[in-house]
Amino acid sequence: MFRRVFTEGATLGRGINRGIATFVAGALGVGAHGLARFSGEKFEPIILGASVFFLASVVTFARFFPRMKARYDYGLVIFILTFSLISVSGYRDDEILDMALKRLTTILIGGSTAISICIFICPVWAGNDLHNLIASNMDKLGIFLEGFGDEYFTKSYEKSKDMRAKYESVLHSKSSEELLANFAKWEPRHGRFRYQHPWEQYLKIGALNRQCACIFEALNGYLGSEIATSQEIRVKIQHTCTKMSSESSYALKELALSIRTMTRSSTAVAHIMNAKVASTNLKYFLKTNLQKEITNLLEVIPVATVASLLVDIVACVENIAESVNELAKLANFKNIVDATKISEKVRPCDREIEVSHHNIYVE
By percentage, how much of the chain surpasses pLDDT 70? Predict the structure, then answer.
C-alpha cells in the first residue's frame, strides 16, 4: 500500500524511502533466508531470529539520530517491517522470492501512480508553502508593532486581544516550518526554487521570528495593565518609543516583501538605522534623566520595562535582517532599485499555511 500525502515533497520523500527500504530489506531478507536454509534445519530458526534481532536493533538505534529521524525515519520503519516479513515468512513458506517480488512490484506501481498524480495533476510544493509561511509570519510581527505605540500610549486597551492574535500563531509555527522544510528538501527544482535551495536558512529566520514574538508576548502584557505609571515619563519617551516600533514595523514588512518577491530590499536598512538611532536616544535618556525624576518606583518600572523591551525588539529585527540578507545571497535574490513597483504587484499571502494530509490509497 502506498499513499499520496498533501505536498509533493512528502510524497517523493516517502516514496523514495519506501522503495529503497523495501528493496534493501527484501534483498537482505532473501539472503538471511538462504543462509539459514544452508546451515541446516537445526540452526535455521536460530539464525533467522538472530538476524532479525540484530538488524532490527541496529536500525532502531539509528532512528534516534536527529538527522536520520528527520529524513529517513519512515524508510527505517519500512526496512524493519519488510525484513522481518520476508525473513520470518520464508521459514514456513518456500515461495519467498515470489513474495519479495510481489511486494516490490506493488511498491513500484503505487509509488509511480502517487508521484505522477502529485507532479502532473495537482502539484502542491512544500517549499512554496514554507516560503510564504515565513513571509506571512514576518508580516504579522510588523502589523503588531505598527499599532503598538498608539495602543500603549493612548491607553486604548480594548484591542489588545486582537493584537495578540496577530503574532500568536508565530509562536506555534516551529513544527510546521520544520515539517515543510524536511519535505521541501525532497522536491526537485520548481518555479523560483532551484535545486539545493537553502531551506535551512528559512528555519533560522523562523527561529528569529519566534524569538521576536516571545518579546511581543512580554510586551503585550503591559497593554491593559492596571499598574499606575508616571504620565510625565510616558510623555517624554512616547515619541521615541513610537518611532522605534513604527520603524521596526516598516523594516519587518519590507523584509517580508523581500522574501516573498525574492528581491533585495534597500529600504529595510534605512528603517533599521532609524530604529537604532531612536534606540540609542532612548537608552541615553534612561541612563541620564530617569534617575533624577524617580518619585515613585512602582510608577517608573512599567514604562522603563516597555522601553527596554522595545530596545530588544530593535536588536532582534536587526538580526532578522541579517538572516534575510544571508538568504538573499544563498538564494540569489534579484537586485531591484524601485521596490515600490513590486509591492504593487505582489500581495501578501491571504491563506494560512496548514500542514494536513490528504491520503490517496493505491493497493
Answer: 77
**Is the confidence at residue 185, as pLDDT, over 80?**
yes
Contact 287, 222 (CB under 8 A): no
CA nearest to 83, candidates 14, 18, 21: 21
**Nearest alpha-carbon partner for 180 in 161, 168, 166, 193:** 193
User: What is the C-alpha separation between 13 and 173, in angstroms, rounded?
Assistant: 22
Phi, psi angle pair for 4, to nearest 5°: -95, 120
- What is the C-alpha separation between 93 and 89, in angstroms, rounded? 6
pLDDT, tens digit, for every residue of 57-93? 999 999 898 888 888 888 899 899 888 887 777 655 5
Q: What is the pLDDT of residue 291?
A: 61
Three cell numbers at 253?
514588512
Q: Do 82 and 21 form a contact (C-beta atoms < 8 A)?
A: yes
C-alpha 345/C-alpha 339 separation (Å) is 10
32, 47 Cβ separation under 8 angstroms: yes
Region 200-215: mean pLDDT is 93
Contact 185, 9 (CB under 8 A): yes
Q: Residue 353 has what DSSP assignment? A: P
pTM of the prediction?
Answer: 0.75
Give the count of beta carbons closer than 10 Å to the beta carbon of residue 146.
19
Residue 54's Cβ-side half-sphere holds a number of Cα atoms within 13 Å equal to: 10
Helix (H) / strand (E) containing 206: helix 199-220
